[in-house]
Specification:
It is found in: Endoplasmic reticulum membrane. This protein is an alpha/beta fold and 364 residues long. The chain contains ten helices and ten strands. The structure holds NADP nicotinamide-adenine-dinucleotide phosphate. NADP nicotinamide-adenine-dinucleotide phosphate (NAP) binds next to helix 2.
Length: 364
């Protein structure tokens, strides 16, 4: 039964009485307080559910299988940029272990040959290498993009890992940043990534848009520096933030065409770029990091509520979740913490550089 009318009249200040279905209902709580409580309860429920989901994803829920991007004949290729070291090398290895043929993109031919040799002999897959300095615009880079585009048209390219990235040599105030360093960061992180994706995406759409065909994947490696603005790494931080927005816009355009586009967030990982040599709970090895990425497809983990984005490694996931939890407040404190951390790192890096210079001076 539905009440055709609800009568409200106030007989005590702030205590309205509702006449509902023939009953008088006196409200002891002022309406504004009731509304605020309801909003609070809704937020609490949202965060409780998302935290519960985060824990489930990190413990028991299985991610979607990476094989979803493979064609039935097992001859699918995965392209990994920046695959001669760090995270990219590990992507190349683990994708080869999963029986993807691998397209290797890097700037050093000898290093690419070594990786190719390792993957072919250890995992019995095919490889194809493209030698290109992705930070340098011009005819060589354009030619590499054309060749990769042609390759994608005549082979089953199902996975693109936009891994290559460049950062500052050390934390540096924006006003003192060298223009060459800035150009290198922007060309590598943004222009190359966007141009390469543009070169291969038509072939991916073609392979994945018909019913029953395998999905394609475009994964770009982001950074929590793009999520929490990072003073003294302003250019790097800005490029990673740009990749996040670009990913989401593109993801929506092609999701109905069978191409999944996503940004994978990372905090520190042991590598040349981070200059961290020893792993810890907060700083995984590239191997453990990549393993977490390839076993958690479809799970946002630390990026709860943010579409087309995920933060797979468990400590990074908690960090990312915490930043999202308190919204504005945590971003303000996050920026403060990072500002202090980068100032300290800069001081130490400058001292180290000066010591090395002195040592060089003595040995001459
Ligand atoms: N490590 C971290 O803590 C961390 C944190 C967040 C996000 N990330 C992101 O993760 C990705 C991989 O970083 P990483 O730590 O693995 O870096 P890394 O150890 O420095 O490796 C970078 C790879 O990219 C290649 N590369 C760099 N510049 C290139 C260029 N101009 N042309 C062609 N290849 C080039 C390097 O080749 P060479 O072997 O020739 O140098 C190497 O193979 C980046 O996008 C980075 O922003 C890293």
């Amino acid at each position: 039964m539905v009440a055709d009318t609800i009568h409200v009249h106030t007989h005590l200040a702030g205590h309205p009485t509702y006449h509902i279905l023939g009953h008088d209902l006196v409200l002891d709580v002022p309406i504004p307080a009731l509304i605020l409580s309801a909003i609070g309860a809704a937020f609490l429920l949202r965060y409780t559910l998302s935290f519960f989901r985060l824990i489930l994803e990190l413990t028991v829920l299985p991610g979607k299988n990476v094989k979803r991007y493979q064609a039935r004949d097992g001859k699918t290729w995965a392209l990994v940029t920046g695959c001669t070291g760090g995270i990219g090398l590990e992507f190349a290895r683990q994708l080869a272990k999963n029986k993807f043929n691998v397209v290797l993109v890097g700037r050093r031919k000898t290093a690419l040959d070594e990786v190719a040799q390792e993957l072919e002999s250890k995992y019995g897959v095919e490889t194809k290498s493209f030698v290109v300095d992705v930070a340098t615009p011009g005819s060589a880079r354009d030619e590499a993009l054309t060749q990769i585009e042609l390759f994608s048209k005549s082979n089953d390219l199902g996975v693109l890992i936009n891994n290559v990235g460049a950062s500052h040599l050390m934390p540096v105030p924006f006003a003192e940043t060298d223009r060459t360093e800035m150009t290198q960061i922007i060309e590598t992180n943004i222009n190359w990534t966007i141009f390469l994706t543009r070169a291969v995406i038509p072939s991916m759409i073609a392979r994945s848009s018909s019913r029953g065909s395998p999905k394609s994947l475009i994964m770009t490696i982001g950074s929590l520096s793009g999520r929490i603005p990072s003073p003294l790494l302003a250019t790097y931080s800005g490029t990673k933030a740009a990749l996040s927005t670009w990913t989401k816009a593109l993801a929506k355009e092609v999701e109905k065409k069978g191409v999944e586009v996503e940004l994978v967030q990372a905090a520190f990982v042991v590598s040349n770029m981070s200059k961290i040599r020893r792993s810890s709970a907060l700083v995984p090895t590239p191997r453990n990091f990549v393993q977490s990425v390839l076993t958690s497809f479809g799970q946002p983990r630390g990026a709860q509520g943010r579409p087309y984005e995920r933060t797979p490694f468990w400590t990074h996931a908690f960090l990312d979740y915490a930043v999202g939890f308190a919204g504005y407040l945590s971003e303000v404190s996050g920026i403060k913490v990072i500002d202090k951390m980068h100032k300290d790192i800069r001081k130490r890096a400058i001292r180290k550089y000066q010591r090395e210079k002195e040592r060089e001076g003595k040995s001459e």
